[in-house]
Each structure stands twice: as C-alpha cells, then as structure tokens.
C-alpha cells in the first residue's frame, strides 16, 4: 500500500479515461483512498481544458466517509460509464469530468491543489500524456503530487480504445483498481552463464511494468572458496533509459542471445561477463557499491548463488544457492514461476546447458499502440562537442543520446552487417546528413533481420545505450530498396582531445563519428596483438608504436596522466567482429591473400596499416570482459597492411671477443602441469616439491607436446644468439635444483653447442636454509670452449640483505665470475629477477607515476644489489661487473636509477653502473605491455667494465610477435601456426652485450652543444625556435657513423634571460616575466647553465621564483601545446657558480645545493657531475666578480673582490684559486672522473683566456657575457656578422695541458658545437678538432635549412615563441618616431676601421639618440642639467633590420620595414620606431637620476667609461652635452685627452680637459643626468654617493618617498615618466614624429665619431677654439687686463669693473653678479668687432641695448630692478654688431 504523500492528501488520482463510445463516453476519473477519510467534502476536483489553465475546483465531494483502500469513480454521466465498465460511477459531474484526451485534472484539499494529472497550462495533444480515446493509469507507489511527473503514469497511447464497446473486451483495457494492488517485486528471474560452445549469457529481470532500473547495478561476485572470494568480477550499471517493459521484463545478455533464441537483449554485455565457476549474481543499489570487492554495506534488491560445489558460506548476501549440476556448474537457473520469490533455492529450476527451449529469455515489450517519431540519426546521436576529459559510457554521461528511451523511426543505408554482434550499422544518406561535424550520422541497430550493405531500410524501435554506444533496439525493420553507401568520413589521429570512460581510463575522442563509415589517412602502426588469438583484436596507433611512459620520461603523476591522454589520442582497436573466444580463424585484416593468420604468415608490432576504412564503433571487445569499451573498427572494409618491421635471423653484431646474453625463458619447466589452470595443482615442484608447475601443459599437437614445442623454440633462439654466457630468468627451481637446466643444456648441445650450467642446486637461500621456495629461479649457461668458472657462485636474498626480500617477492640474485679462455681476463655476471608490478604487496601500491605497483620493493632490492656487488660477493677482486636480467622496471624508473647510482646512491660518481643497452641501442625494447614498448630487461656495466663494452642490442624475436605463434595449446589454440624457430619463444626479448676484455687505450669523444647570452628579445621569437631545430639536428647526427648514440651534452654559459620586451611579454602572456625564457631553456634540454650577470638584473627574489617555480604563472595560453594548462615549475637544470655564495641571500638560500652532485632542477650549486654514457664529466660555473657593480645580486657574496672591470694579475690569480678549489673538490669526490668543463661568465673573453692558463685539470672553458663570435674557417655566419676570433682558442694550462676556450654570439643567433676527443687521462686531443663538424652554427633560416632541420623545431618552444611574438606585435603598432637610418645598438664589432658596430666600444647613432633623449627629459624638470651619460651595456638591441636587397649580393642595414596586419592595414610604417623597439633596445628601462658632480668627478666618470677599451664592456659610455677624446693605449684612468661641455650644436661651453690635464676649477659643479643604476655605482661608475653633495633627484620618484611614482603622462604611457623608455618615446615624438622630420643621422665607424673620439682612429677635434686664458675678477672693483692671446675675462662680484682684453679673441663673461640685486656697472674698453664676444651666464637676459656716442650700453634684466649695465667701447662698435653668447656655462666661476 502506498504511503501517504508529503502533501497530506489521503486521496490520489489513479486513472483517467476518455472513452470510445458515442460522444467520447465514458469520461471518467478514478481516485484511491490512501487512508480512512471521515469527511470527503474537504476534497474537490477540477479540469483544465485545452491548455487554458486551471479553472479551480469545479466539483466538491459530499460529506461522506471513505475507508482506506477504497476506489472512487467520477464520470460525466452514468449510462455510458455503466455500459462500458459494467458498474455505475460513485459520483457524476458534467463539469469536472468533462475531459478529452488533452485535458489536465486537479485534485483539491481545502482549496489547495494536492495532486495533478497533466499540465494545466498546456494541451496534452501529441505529448507523452495524450490519452485521446484511451487512458492513463498511475503507477503503484507514486503520488499524490501537485507537480505532474509523466514517469509516474502508464499510458495506453492515443486511440487505444477505438472500436471497443466494453472494457473487458478491449484490446488495451483500462487497468481499473490497479493502483493499490501489491507491486511486483523486482527480481532476478533467470540467468544463463555456461553453455555449449561459446557461452550464450543472459540475465532476465522481472518486476512492475515500466519500473526504472536507473540507480541499480547488476554484479557478478567471485564465490569460489579462494583468496579472491568476494571480488566483483563484473558490474553492469543501469541508466535512465533502462526500464522494464510493459510485460515487466528486461533482458541483459550477450549479442549471441539473438542468434540462439531470436531475442535481442535490451542491454548487451560482453561474453564471459558471467563466471564459469561458482558465482553470486546480485541486483544492488549502485550508490551502495564501493571498490572492487563486496564490503557488506551493499543495498541488495535480489541475489542468487550458482555453485559448482562450494557451500553456502562462499556466496555473498545470503543468496539462495542453486547447483551443482552433478559435479558441474549449472548452466544457470530460472524461476519456476515468473516473479515468485520466497528467497529459497526451491524457487528455481536449472537451465539447459545445450541451449534448449527450456531456457526462456524474454526482452522488454513496449507500450501497445505507441507512436514512432520520424527522426534522423543525427537527432538521435545529438551534438557531441565534448571537451577534453569528458566522462562517457555511463548512465547520464554527455555522450548519451538525448532521445534515450524514445520510440523512433529512421530510414537509412545499411553500411555493415555484424551478425556476431547481433545487428547491423546504418547511416543517413549523404543527402540527409546535417553537415554538422559534431553529430554522427550512423548508428547500430540491434536486430536479427537479414540485410545487406547498401540496403535502404526503415527501422522502428527504441533508442538505447549499450556500453556507451547508442543503438536502436529494433521492433521492426523493412527493406525499402537499395542506395549508394555514404562517403567515408575522414578522421585524424591523434585526436585533439580525449574522453574518460567509467573506470577513469582515457579513450580517443571520436564520439562524433560513432556508428559512421570512416577512413583514416594516417599510417597506423600495429602496437599490440596480445588479444589477437583469443579475442580477435589488434591495437593500432598513429605516429608509430606506443612507448611506455617511464621508458622515455622520468616518473611523475602529472606527466604520466598527460601521457596516457596522448596514448589514448593515438589509439584505435581493430576487431574481428566476432563474439567467439579462440576463433577457429584468426582474422588479420589485409594480411596475405585471405586476411587470416595462417602458417607462414608474419605480422609484427610496428607493421603499418594505411587507408583503413570501416564503421567506427564504441564498444567492448566482444569477448573480453577485461577491456573497457573503446573505439574500434570491426572488420575494416578497405586498407593495406605493410610489413615495416621484418624479422632478423640473428641479433645485431655487438662486437668484442665475448658475448653475454640475458633471456627470460617464460617458465621453462620439465615438470609438466598435468592439470592446466592456476592454483589447482599438481603441487610437485619447487625446492620443497610443493609448488605448482608454471610451464608447459600436457597438451600436444601433431605428435609434439607443449614442452617439445617450447624447448625447440628456446634452443633455436639461444643457439642463434650464440652467447658465451647466458643469464636465464624464469627457469624451473625444481627439487633437485638443476633438472630443467640440465635438460636445456642437453637440448642445446644436441644441436652442436658446448654449454654447461652453473649448478646452484635448488635455490633456497644464500646460507642454505629454506628461506623461500619459489617455483622459478635465475640461472647461468656458459660456453665451456670460451669461458670457465672462477670461484664459487654467490646468492643474494634477505639473509644477506633484508631489503632483497625473496619470500613471496622476488627471486634471489645469482652472481658468478667467468674467465675468458683466450685472454685470461675475468668479469662477474649477475642475473636477477625483481618483483613484478602485479600481485601488489601491502603498502606498495601503484601511486600513478608510471612505475606501477611494488616500486619501492624493487628499488630497495636494487639498492641492496648494488651494495652487495660492492662487497665483491664472489671474491674475484676484479671490479668488472655486468648486471643482467629482468628488473621489472623500465629504463627511467627508480630501480634502474638506483643501480645506475651505485653503492653510494649518488649518481655521477665513480661507482655508478652504466646501462649499456640504452647506450648502444637507445631505441631498443624487450617487452610490450598494454600496447606500449619498453625495456624490462637490462644490462648494466660497472664503470670499469663499461669501457670494455663493444656493443649491446635487444633482439626483437618475441615482443614484436603475436603470441598466437608461441608454443601454447591452451584455449583450443590452433597448433598448426607453430614453427620450431626462435620467434615467440618467450614474451621477453633477449639482451646481448659484447665485451672486449683486451680493449685498446680508450678514446672518449664528447659533443658539447653550447650557447651563451640567450637574452630573449623580439628577435628571439624567430631565433629561439630555429636554435632548437639546429641543436636537435646536430644532436641527431651520428658522429661516428656507427649507429651508436653520441656522447652529447648541452650547456649554456649564462644570461639565459634579460629584462626587456621578451621578458615583459612573458609577464603579459604567462603571468611572470622570465617564465617564457626559463621554459625555453628547459625545452632546449640544458644539463646546466652558469649564472650570468643578467640573471640578477631584476633582483634575487625574481631569480629565485624563476628557478624554484615559485614565479606566478602557467601555460594555459598555449592551447594545443603539450604545455597547455600546466603550471610553471621552474628550472629543470641547475644554475652553477663556484664563486658566488647564494646562501647569504635570503631569497636564494633555499635553493642552495651541494656541489658535485648529479644535475638537480630548481637549484643553485657550484658544480655538477654528468654521467655521459658511463663517463663522468664535472661541470663548474663561475660568474664575473664585477657582478655587484653591473647588476643587483642582493645579499649574494661574491668572490674575489675586484676593483675594476679589467682585473689585475693578482685579481685573476684570486679568481683562479676559487675556481681551482671547486675543480679539485669535484675530482676528489669522483676518483674515476678526469674531465672538467668550466662555464665562465666573465663578459670579456680575455679573462676566460687568462683563466685557462692559470687553472689545472680544466679541459674546456665555455666563455660567456662578451658575445664574442668565434668561428672557424668553414663556418657560415649570419649576414651582417663577422668573426671576432678563431673557434676554438687552444690555450696551455698551468700543467702544460691543452684547454679549449669557446664562445659564440648571443641572442639565440648561434649554436656552438665542440666535438673533441679525450685520451684515457681525460686530456683533450687538439688534433681531433674537425672544422667540418665543430664551430659556430648560425640559427637563421639558412642555417636551419642547411641541416634539413625544418621539422625539428621544438613544438613547445615554437608555441612559446608564437605567444610572445603575438604579444610583441600587439605593441608594434604603438609608433613614436621615424628613422630613415639604421640605429646601431650592436654590442661589439671587429674593431676594424669603418666597422660601425660596438655600442660597448664606440659612439653610435643610437647611443647619441637615447643620451639626447635623457638630457631632454632631464632639462624638462631642471634646465640646469648640462650633461647626459649612460652605459652602452644598457642598449640591448639595434633599431632597424639587415636584409639582402632583391638582386643584391650583400646585406645592407636599413631602417625598420613596414609592418602590415592580416588585412594589409599598416601596423607600423616604414622606418617606424615602436614601443617594441624602444623596449627591446632599452630593455632594462632604468630610471633617470639627476646628480651634481664636480668637474673633476665628471672627468673621472668619463675615464671609467673607457677604462676597458679596446675590449667590449658594458660600462662604455654614450653621452650628450659633453665631448671627449681618449687614447686606449694610455693607462686606464689617464686616457682622456680632451673634454668639453657642449651645447646642443656641439659648441664648447666649458673645456674640462686639455692635453690630458684638468682645466679650470676642479671643484666647479656640473648638473648631470644618468641612469639610477649608474648613480648607485652600477657598472663600477664612480658617481659620488653623498646625498647632500650630489643633490640627487630621481625622476621616477619626484616626491622622494622611495617608491616610484608610476606617473604616466605625455604621448607615451607604456612606461612610467622618468624612465629611459619614456624619455626616448617622448623625445622621438617631439622631434622625429613623422616622415618629414625623420631621424637621418647615419652611424659611422670610430673614425667619424664626434662626441667620443678614439684617437687610435681619428684626430682630436674636441676643443672648438684655441684655449682661453682665464682672467677673473674678485669681490672688489677690479681692473682686469688680458694677455696678447685669447682670454676669458670674468667679471667679479664688485659693482664696477673695467676690462681690457688686449689682442686675441677674447670672451667677456657676465654671470650671477648680474642677478644678485646689486647695481653692476662694468666697462669693456677694447671690444674688437668680429673677434671678441660677450658671454652671458645662465638666466642673464638683456633688457635693452642703447647706442650712446662711441659707447654701446647693454642693459641687463636685473630681477630687482637695479639696471645693471655693460658699457662696451671699441673701434666701430654698434648696437648691432656685438656678438653675444647666451646661457654660457662657466664652470670655473
């Protein structure tokens, strides 16, 4: 009985009738009393007609009482009602019951609606609740509810009562009084699971018609009395579209049910979903399930146990148990009477194993008379624009049909018939397709009707979902004719996105093509055939075979998850379309002539399919319940299979005089398993004779047993390898110890071999105790003719080291020393077999990083193995050790790395082991698992043995082969496919190693790919990707032409980033400046980078964030890149500097790491040690000791202290001592290491050369910071570049050995490549340098093309560059000025006459322009500023471009070219100088500072600027308002020969230096604008620091609060006022803003420089006129008399002066005394017209000039009105011919 609803209503609407009699009679409403009702009058009814909305209560019940369980009937009249139903209605209302099939009904309680049928505001016509000439009946247990839910009702459908005269005889009678009846309980009604042939399986559910199964699951629970009892072996979750039919049935079954019984299941499941041993079948609430085993917390609806002999205690949920059937598992069971459930076995009878008629699978029937909606298939499939990672294949998921459960009718073309799947595929004709790429036009039809491809069919049925694939469960299928097949749709791999299935696994996103005929243009490689023989499937992948993640990448949870997505995006399954296990014919599409795998056919992993065409399905492997549903093509209709991976007859030649092999022989047992299966006996092997055999079974074929077949293949393989020593894995550990070994040796020697075995007996423990008794062990065979045993074997297990657990874990390791007969040399071989990734040990579960389960166990065992070997367990005294075997770990996993690190657990030290397989066969693999290749089998040589290894290879005879070809005969395998050859002798491939124990003195060839001063700028957008291509191309070359990997390292000598446009664009795009630069370094794969000076330019906090990954930002902007969505994680490499102590800086201290370790990301250290294929190489870093003056190193301690840029000999010695100490420490910590590389960022190449001669044991120096382009005679340089020295520079070190010093230009313009040989002592062999191979490789487009590297650009670097480029281009349209000429900001040139390059060595036009701009910005604030000085190092790029004109033969430099957008609109005009240009050239964007210095200070500042000349140095000045000459051959500090302060036209205002001597008052003051960096002492500039003295004003902090104002004014608002960038932008806009006023001063070489005159190139013309003799007045009234020469006559403070200049060109000066408020009357007695001049000081203005006889009176504008006057007398003097100099600055005044 339904419970009272929450509405409080005791009455509920239960049926509505629109009758078939004349006038639509009867029209009636049935109600049901849920409780006793004392007064029915509180209830009423109303009808809402034709969607017109509620009419309120139209009928009130009389005040009578009603008992619970009573039915009440209201009709419009009684005659028709009684005639139809046979009884009279209880109540009559012509209004409330006046309903047609589209009208709603409302039930009222005290005037409030408490129950509703239909929607009052909408007509029901054509809706699901349309009951015209029919009825609607409420489902038991639902309602009452004021909100109408159509799912609560069952409907007859329109016209269901037509032609009926009485309800009793109607075809679809009204189900009167059905609401209160007891609802049929939902039960498991029938199950079939084990039948003859391939199992036909189904589960039949029975319950109340229309009942939804959503939220329920059907589970199959393991019920054998074994350890996995209670495991949920299968689970089927029901979705919203899964409902019981009108007959109360729902059928879950395999596709084969349709073939066996002609009944199509409502939900299709995979074969073997139901156990073939004892199981419990249960229907439970999905939400109550947790994990993969029964917990006891499940909410169980019904359950049934089926047993083959286990007792009731083995079954879950207290289920009734049926069986066994004799001694066998019953085929299944069915209820004796449908739905009758007493929870006892007596309810059931056993099913028929032989598929007889007693088995009665019944599928759901649908509502009688239901209409089918005419739709297109794309309507059913719905739009599937699914985002990456969308969940699919489960109830309610995004891929579910929007029409799930709907009755539909479609007409379409049959594209493929799949009898093995119980139906066929159809697709819309091309003309009916909707053209939407996101909707599928195809669908599967579940039907047994015989159709053929090309048939045009009309299908009526119900939309359903099975395993994530949308289908139509057909009710009817009609063939209408034939039609052309639709055109196959092209799908591309890898897919752009992936989906997630119910288990969280990724699958390619092909949902938009589900059910469609598709074609794949890409080559698809065979990557897995493990299921081929049993289930008929092949996995294929795009872009070659899939590789195991940890074979090529370091383990990591995020990385592994991302990689699995990539694998899924490349993957597809080919399926034979059969539901049969172990098919008689193994179908391999397009193999041979018949597409079947027959004897002699060969298909191998890596073979390629092209042009595959077929229907795409999303479904389970039709016979394998171990696979989740995924996309597959069943029986492709077209395609081609090409054998691209042919077999080889023997392994590749590994050289040497001795070979060692490792071979996992996959359970070679002479003890036969006579009872096939696991854990079912016999138990007659192992040391104690109590283990079950794991090898060959007792099957035979054509006279050969499985053992015969296995042994023949193994013998063929081992004989072909012909190794002198063979390590065996998975050989029987029989009670006698060596029975299987003896049998294998006998079989080999019968074939002409000469093997013996190491007789260990049964391996029970190293001390002879029964520690463990595994059925398998490791062992050795050896060729008695070539080697002999030396000493006893040794065994490692937990009795030796508790970390090497063997009991139930891994097999004991076996070591044996062998001696080569020919040479007498010995080595020790160790064969080991570590714990597998299966059978998880407690606490060592898979953490999702790609290493699988039990990784910690394997790693600890690996460490124990390394420690054990360090103890020389065989007592050989020989350090030569080779570890071989199955480590159950891939190449990059922790156990392998643990062995490689040796006993000290520190990689890069002398006791390391070398993985010689990866060294000699880097792309090799020994195993395929889950379709991915990788090496579980390894060979690792000790450091001493590694140099004696001549080669190593993996012979792919097993992993690449289909297991259908192996020796097994289980599962009814076709024995005729077997051949007695090596192929598929096992599942692992043998590893083969060559040894030459008499190797000649060893030469080590090292390839160093190096760069320096990357310093990202606008040009890097092009140059950085190109550089990646060049580096990749160079590393890809096989230098020795030997097929072996080269010994390549990648290094950078510093300045990986620099503030500027690239840096700032990174902040805009990725969140922080520098992220783009650092990630580019990561992608370039540098092993280490030296700390340069520019790393510190933004301070140590910024540097720390970029190294640690703490800098805010991510790569979400890189959509489509492998980096997309990843967080920035900092450096993958260490930064190095031995002479910087970063631990004293709070920001950098946490990043400090000890020197001499293997490279660690996110760290700063003094040195690192690289393991380059077994050779250790020390890398030491060093940074210029001038760092504190040229950058912002914070609290970093710098050693040693240098006074200036050019170090003294003593300072060089001090630096060399610091570096030498680090070199010595690294070598001492690694006794086997003898090669050291120094990365020295010294900024002047001469310093690196000087260090080379002072150091010991340093072999190569990578210079940095100077951008010196070294090149050899074969190097092609970029247009516009010239070599500045020879590559390399060979220097003799302190010990007389040769050191190679190399450098290249920066900005990603070149890759340096040094390929050099080292002798055994680690000294370089200079004669090995080959200019055809080594040198500077340009990274321009030609450089890329020359190497054929166009396709080798790193995609992530390209993505970063594109994003940065877009950001820079966005700022290119912000143009401030025009230049007609190339503005030269190049850092250094050749020094040759006419070379204009060298903003760090000479004046340039760009240096002048930006210095002028700074002066103009300063004078806008303080017009007393006279001089602008900045450092050339602050100019980071030129403005302009270098091109070869059309038809030209040489490059030219020119102004910027025009830039247009995609629409051809001008973004930047020709010659335009943009925001980007300004940011690039003034990348540091220093603020401007005004300071007052003495004349002597100014000279000292200029002296410092040229102190490093002729070497390029960042301190070299660029100036405005001053002019000077210097002689670089004079000692630093005394090089200025002439200097003068000048006006805007270059006229001298004040001579500072003449003939090298300071002229005038040394303490005279000059107002100067400079960079705040320099004002603080940056670049070593000696600006005074006394605040009171300098009167310093920082233009970016005018309020002086210590915080930049951040003011943005003027036309340029991209940079703050008071900064260099703003100054240049405003100056350009004001003076060179358009083409008419364009800047046109072309740059010259040093011979044409005017402001800074290098006297090695030109004459000195600094001082404009002959020198003036100073004649100065005093505080009194003076009579001043000049000389016969040129005089400067200066008025004193007196109020009456007379001046006599005498002969010569005299200058009469009047300054501040004219403004002091005292009346001044001065007389010039002998002014010579045209010769003499009158100079007026700053601020002195003329009020008027009056001619008075022979005198001219010049009245001055005294601010206090004192009428100061100068009386000028002389021959011919007039008011018009006196020459005045205004704003004259006299520094000596």
List keywords for this structure.
1789 residues; alpha/beta; Immunoglobulin-like; eight-stranded mixed β-sheet; six-stranded mixed β-sheet; 27 helices; 98 strands; flat; disordered N terminus; Putative extracellular nuclease; 5'-Nucleotdase_C_sf; hydrolase activity, acting on ester bonds; nucleotide binding
Overview of the structural elements:
The protein is of the alpha/beta class. It folds into seven domains: 11-169; 187-350, Sandwich (Immunoglobulin-like); 373-639, no CATH class; 658-801 and 812-829 and 879-884 and 914-995, Deoxyribonuclease I, Chain A (4-Layer Sandwich), CATH 3.60.10.10; 1009-1359, 4-Layer Sandwich (Purple Acid Phosphatase, chain A, domain 2), CATH 3.60.21; 1373-1654, 5'-Nucleotidase, C-terminal domain (5'-nucleotidase,  domain 2, Alpha-Beta Complex); 1669-1784, no CATH class. It is built from 27 helices and 98 strands. The strands form 21 sheets. Strands 56, 57, 58, 59, 61, 69, 70 and 71 form an eight-stranded mixed sheet that branches. A six-stranded mixed sheet has the order 6-5-2-1-9-10. The longest helix is centred in the last third of the chain and has 21 residues, at 1209-1229. The chain is flat, with a radius of gyration of 47 Å. The N and C termini lie far apart (117 Å). GO terms for molecular function: hydrolase activity, acting on ester bonds; metal ion binding; nucleotide binding. This is Putative extracellular nuclease. Residues 676-696 are annotated as: Disordered. Residues 1398-1583 form the 5'-Nucleotidase C-terminal domain. Pfam families: 5_nucleotid_C (PF02872), Exo_endo_phos (PF03372).
